[in-house]
């Protein structure tokens, strides 16, 4: 009867989904790289810890140009997991495009078909998805909730990061990074009762502390995206 | 005979190094013992032990925490009684081993045993967020978070507060850990010039109740050179009084918070937001 027991395989695995950032190099590539470098220097470690995909759909580099870009992305500033929209023959095996994954463009296309879908949750289940955090988000903590809005009743510390598929509401001070609309929802907004953020981002567009109007510092602020620009307004 | 109530286990932690964890462990441990409590202070700073020096016991360390974990000594052999203060005991760290010798099982066993023997088990955490710091906090019921009035220290404390719920047995059971903020090396002059953060700012950023504010004072260094906790060496000095009051608050006594040197009174909110 031991044979029977053996048919029950001991081999197990678990699926795990996580957020990968996709960046799209654009021409002129030199300027794009400069902007990227600036971002990386202002937010050291931001990309270092997150899986990154590079999508070449917006440029068509020569092979040697591609190779030097690849070397750059394989440096320790990044954790490159895949490269897309490039001749697969140019790629080392471990960087082949990953099958599946929801793409930002697809989401945009879907939104154009149904412009009133607004802030509804991306699963279309008709339930409102939101995550409520009743304790402060501490430095070094990372909250990731792609399914909907995040509300924090306390503060978000410097060095903490909240990533939401929808909007972000912080009823205390926002001192860390808030990334709303993480999979491309341009309707997402960020609200906080005291803006002291290191970085705010909506649908991939961002503003980091040095670019934020110092007059808004410490005030209750609403943040949204309009014509690919991050706009901030005091709520007093 | 009545069963002794198990000890309250307190971790003294900060994230950042050199902010006054070991000084505070010794001072509060001594202050509690002076109140008649049975206290053991445990040094978790494996490889960089200091607590024995602060208690003037460095020559009396024969066995240490790691010896007990590895079974080369039993707990009674490793516990060092303080010569000057009845009720105060030390469990020293090993100076020669590394922190990997702190096994989960060994630490759990020792903490369990200490808990049944004492009223207070106070664990001096190493700096950082690595194994040693995690082991020191693992079995705590309460935490004293030490912060200096500067931004890097406050941020590191914030990081540690986050770990207190994630990495401790209490946190894993879904119970909230009691957290107390102890601000040390507070310098009124440098706060006034804006060079250092004010108490309200620190309390606001960390949003946990304030247990005490210990002023910067060279009497602290003098006491540690003598190998005597400041609360015994110089009882009436401002830092000793601040530590003494903090120890009383830790025991649940309601004592208004004193802010070093003539400023407007600060309305503290320890133990859940009461104006002093
Ligand atoms: N209130 C104070 N006034 C002046 N000096 C102080 C005060 N508190 C601590 N110090 C000094 O700061 C230094 C560091 O203190 P201590 O060793 O207690 O810090 P620590 O947090 O345990 O450090 P480590 O992270 O290295 O373990 C010591 O020289 C100590 O004398
Ligand atoms: Mg120390």
How are the elements arranged and paired?
The complex is a heterodimer of chains A (236) and B (276).
Chain A lengths: L1 H6 L13 E3 L5 H14 L8 E5 L7 H11 L5 E6 L19 H10 L16 E4 L8 E4 L3 E4 L8 E4 L3 E7 L2 E4 L9 E6 L3 E4 L2 E4 L12 E6 L2 E6 L2
Parallel strand pairs in A: 1-2, 2-3, 4-6, 5-7, 6-8, 7-9, 8-10, 9-11
Antiparallel strand pairs in A: 10-13, 11-12, 13-14
Chain B lengths: L7 E6 L7 H14 L4 E5 L7 H4 L10 H6 L4 H4 L1 E2 L6 E4 L12 H14 L2 E5 L6 H8 L3 E6 L3 H16 L2 H4 L5 E9 L1 H5 L6 H8 L3 E6 L2 H9 L3 H4 L4 H13 L26
Parallel strand pairs in B: 1-5, 1-6, 2-4, 2-5, 6-7, 7-8
Antiparallel strand pairs in B: 3-4
Helix pairs in contact in B: 1-13
The structure holds adenosine-5'-triphosphate and magnesium ion.
Strand order of the largest sheet of chain B: 3-4-2-5-1-6-7-8
> What kind of sheet is the major sheet of chain A?
6 strands, mixed
Q: Report the helical percentage of chain A.
A: 10-25%
The run of helices and strands of chain B is: EHEHHHEEHEHEHHEHHEHHH
CATH architecture name of the largest domain in chain A:
3 Solenoid
Unreliable spans of chain B: 262-276
Task: Indicate the CATH architecture of chain B.
Answer: 3-Layer(aba) Sandwich
Largest interface: A-B, 16 and 12 residues
Mean pLDDT score of chain B: 90
* Broad shape of chain A: globular
Helix content class of chain B: 25-40%
Count the DSSP helices of chain B: 13
CATH class type of the largest domain in chain A: Mainly Beta
Overall description:
The complex is a heterodimer of chains A (236) and B (276). Chain A is α/β, with parallel strands linked by helices. Chain A has helices at residues 2-7, 29-42, 63-73, 104-113; strands at 21-23, 51-55, 79-84, 130-133, 142-145, 149-152, 161-164, 168-174, 177-180, 190-195, 199-202, 205-208, 221-226, 229-234. Chain A has two domains: 21-112, no CATH class; 130-234, Pectate Lyase C-like, CATH 2.160.20. Helices cover 17% and strands 28% of the residues of chain A. In chain A, the strands form three sheets. In chain A, strands 4-6-8-10-13-14 form a six-stranded mixed beta sheet, with no helix packed on it. In chain A, strands 5-7-9-11-12 form a five-stranded mixed beta sheet, with no helix packed on it. The longest helix of chain A has 14 residues, at 29-42. Chain A is globular, with a radius of gyration of 20 Å. Chain B has 276 residues and is of the alpha/beta class. Chain B has one domain: 3-Layer(aba) Sandwich (Rossmann fold). In chain B, 39% of the residues lie in helices and 16% in strands. An eight-stranded mixed beta sheet of chain B has the order 3-4-2-5-1-6-7-8, with helices on both faces. The chains are: A alpha/beta (236), B alpha/beta (276). The A-B interface holds A 135-141, 154-155, 157-160, 172-173, 175 and B 129, 155-156, 158-159, 161-163, 165, 204-205, 207. Bound molecules: adenosine-5'-triphosphate and magnesium ion. Residues 21-22, 45, 50, 124 of chain B line the site of magnesium ion. Adenosine-5'-triphosphate binds at residues 14, 17-23, 45, 50, 126-127, 184-185, 214, 216-217, 220-221, 224, 239 of chain B.
